[in-house]
């Protein structure tokens, strides 16, 4: 099956948009496009010959990948491509990013293993600087194993699709990209709108040389105009400290702010500059919405979910995020936007992202266009008791989901379990999220506790 956007997909321009809208740097390089691929037995070594070309970032099972082949539990999918590091990145640390790979990935650069990752929905990165050659072409190889097993957080992916159970999306299914950073740079960013206090709290994690004395300049912008600017002094931990990172909490007033809501999804732009010895060493762009989600009485005293201290009736679809041509991966960014615009056109103000996590661009459009999101954690298998190992992995992926998506003003609900699928320790997990994110959390469960 194809969509109206299928014909717009081109190898040289596939998903060209910046993949991390809430932490944007100017310098980056997109590695999407045609890669070599091969499918071999799980215990076989890296193949010397590849089977053909695959279009990244579409799952191997999808039509848009150009392969359309099922990857089973006895097989491993290998990818290979070359790339060149721009000369003006010399002297920088080079980070290799993967938006998401389903499920177990190992990565080599120029024959050197640079890291591995397990989990099908969260972004990950490796510092590949020490594996790079002084110049010229660099080789990137990725091996992926995806058994689509009962103990995985896999949502509605199954080995034998039928009814409401769908085709797996194995391998690389989100954008792969490179970016250069200085030795001292912003690593992560947490943004907390303080609605009742007319302020925003910024919690950047900064990594760098031990004992570095830095200044952080935080600018809040409205329509490209700086409306508030604050500068903060910071010193990184010294040589004897276990961590070389610092995560300060920086409060910036936003007086007379414009609130974010589905009817008026106003976003403030944010710019954070890291300064060392008078020189800018890093700068990122981001955004935030001034919104509050809570539980409290409405005008009639009935306990409700409140948005910005007011009751807003939430109505929306169960959005499963499968595409006829790309499976987990939308054919284009325009297609992602269309889904959200059409949802609103039908009178909805909310979507429950059902047992799937989308690429960051989908949440960006929800933020920009004003669509509330109830976000599911992808479920393990229904009617199965998860093993201790599966539970540990599930909780790790749940933690990563929240850490990488919590800044989106559109997300107002976190759903740990769908119905009874893989459900366990419900109260403990729900309470841990409530404490961690100070947002709403629920289960849509057939198994009450």
Quick synopsis:
The chain has 449 residues and is mostly beta strands. It has helices at 333-345, 360-369, 388-405, 426-437; strands at 29-30, 33-41, 52-56, 75-84, 93-98, 101-102, 104-109, 112-118, 124-127, 137-145, 171-172, 176-181, 185-194, 199-207, 213-222, 225-235, 245-246, 250-253, 268-276, 279-288, 293-297, 303-307, 310-311, 316-319, 350-353, 372-376, 411-418, 440-444. The strands form seven sheets. A six-stranded antiparallel beta sheet has the order 3-2-4-10-7-8, with no helix packed on it. A five-stranded parallel beta sheet has the order 24-25-26-27-28, with helices on one face. The chain has a four-stranded antiparallel beta sheet with strand order 1-12-5-9, with no helix packed on it.
Folded structure, characterized:
The chain has 449 residues and is mainly beta. It has 3 domains: 6-181, Jelly Rolls; 185-288, Immunoglobulin-like; 293-444, TIM Barrel (Alpha-Beta Barrel). The chain has helices spanning 333-345, 360-369, 388-405, 426-437, and strands at 29-30, 33-41, 52-56, 75-84, 93-98, 101-102, 104-109, 112-118, 124-127, 137-145, 171-172, 176-181, 185-194, 199-207, 213-222, 225-235, 245-246, 250-253, 268-276, 279-288, 293-297, 303-307, 310-311, 316-319, 350-353, 372-376, 411-418, 440-444. Strands 3-2-4-10-7-8 form a 6-stranded antiparallel beta sheet, with no helix packed on it. It has a 5-stranded parallel beta sheet with strand order 24-25-26-27-28, with helices on one face. A 4-stranded antiparallel beta sheet has the order 1-12-5-9, with no helix packed on it. Helix 1 runs parallel beside helix 2. The radius of gyration is 22 Å and the shape is globular. The model has no long low-confidence stretch (mean pLDDT 94).
């Amino acid at each position: 099956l194809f969509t109206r956007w299928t014909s717009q997909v081109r190898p040289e321009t596939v998903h060209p948009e910046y993949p991390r809208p809430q932490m944007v740097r100017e310098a980056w390089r997109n590695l999407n496009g045609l890669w070599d691929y091969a499918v071999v037995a799980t215990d076989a070594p890296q193949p010397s010959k590849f089977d053909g070309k695959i279009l990244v970032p579409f799952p191997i099972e999808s039509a848009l990948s150009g392969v359309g082949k099922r990857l089973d539990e006895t097989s491993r999918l290998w990818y290979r491509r070359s790339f060149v590091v721009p000369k003006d990145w010399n002297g920088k640390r080079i980070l290799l990013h993967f938006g998401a790979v389903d499920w177990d990935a190992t990565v080599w650069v120029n024959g050197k293993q640079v890291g591995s990752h397990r989990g099908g929905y969260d972004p990950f990165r490796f510092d590949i600087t020490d594996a790079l050659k002084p110049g010229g072409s660099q080789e990137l190889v990725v091996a992926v194993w995806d058994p689509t097993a009962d103990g995985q957080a896999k949502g509605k992916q199954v080995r034998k699709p039928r009814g409401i159970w769908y085709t797996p999306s194995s391998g690389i299914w989100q954008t792969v990209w490179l970016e250069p950073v200085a030795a001292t740079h912003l690593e992560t960013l947490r943004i907390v709108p303080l609605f009742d206090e007319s302020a925003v709290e910024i919690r950047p994690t900064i990594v760098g040389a031990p004992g570095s004395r830095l200044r952080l300049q935080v600018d809040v912008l409205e329509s490209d105009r700086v409306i508030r600017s604050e500068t903060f002094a910071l010193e990184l931990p010294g040589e004897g400290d276990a961590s070389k990172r610092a995560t300060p909490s920086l409060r910036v007033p936003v007086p007379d702010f414009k609130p974010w809501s589905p009817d008026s999804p106003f976003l403030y732009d944010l710019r954070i500059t890291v300064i060392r010895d008078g020189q800018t060493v890093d700068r990122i762009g981001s955004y935030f919405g001034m919104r509050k989600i809570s539980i409290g009485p409405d005008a009639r005293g009935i306990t409700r979910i409140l948005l910005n201290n007011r009751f807003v009736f939430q109505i929306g679809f169960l959005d499963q995020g499968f595409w006829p041509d790309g499976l987990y991966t939308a054919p284009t960014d325009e297609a992602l936007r269309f889904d959200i615009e059409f949802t609103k056109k039908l009178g909805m103000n909310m979507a429950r992202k059902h047992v799937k996590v989308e690429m960051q661009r989908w949440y960006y459009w929800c933020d920009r266009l004003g669509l509330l999101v109830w976000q599911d954690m992808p479920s393990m298998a229904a009617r199965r008791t998860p093993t201790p190992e599966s539970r540990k992995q599930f909780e790790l992926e749940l933690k990563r989901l929240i850490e990488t998506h919590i800044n989106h003003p559109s997300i107002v609900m976190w759903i740990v379990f769908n119905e009874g699928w893989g459900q366990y320790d419900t109260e403990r997990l729900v309470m841990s999220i409530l404490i961690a994110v100070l947002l709403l959390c629920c289960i849509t469960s057939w198994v009450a506790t």
